[in-house]
Amino acid sequence: MPDPRSSRGSLAVVGIGPAGLLDMTQRAHQAILHSDVVIGYQAFLDRVPELLSGKEIISSSMGDERERALISLERAAGGSRVALLSGGDPGIYGMASPIVEELIAYGDEPLAFDVTIIPGVTASTASGSLLGSPLAQDHGVISLSDRFVPWSVISQRLHALMVADLVVVIYEPSSRHRPENMKKAHAVIQEHRGPETPVAIVKDAYRETQSVIFTSVGRLLDHQYDMRTTVIIGSSETVQSGRWMSTPRFHSKLKEE
Q: Which domain, by its residues, includes 152?
């Protein structure tokens, strides 16, 4: 990591939400608007073209997260006002992690530039809002991507979420490199959920290509999945009727006490 004491600058790690300007917070909007340099995966840059005029744009491919983090820190150390874009929320499978890891590795000396992490609407809440209120009780979020976490750990965590009877939100259920992961996850899910347990499959929430499918645990493998799909598995409390999926705010066991 470059020495960040060389000059004054700033770095905002910006969660841009699921789609475009309408789904961003005002804080995120202002951070990009007032930046000199905007850095991000090209698909994220394409969501906010209205905010990029007159700025230096640095794009890179999916998988180059650490490279984007290092470039962002270097430019901020050089005095630039940098906005590093992250889809959804930067702290949830996003760009906050590689940035903070580098800052921790640097040590405890004060930085000569400001670093802010700006939250955004993540896929779980975006998808949940299209369904009604599936996340009204406790819930868990898990990614099936084994790029950073081995499958043995993912499987163990998925088992634990199922045993706890939580609503479970699945990110990255399948990809070109991991076509079998949803099938392996289904083997775990059906150990703990009945075949009629409601499931919602949301793709591209709040984008023009958005789709919502209601299904069940028993029919989970009848559908197609990719990196842009979010899957919400209901708990024993969750119900689905028409266009709505809901987990009651008050757990049924309260009635027994």
A: 124-246
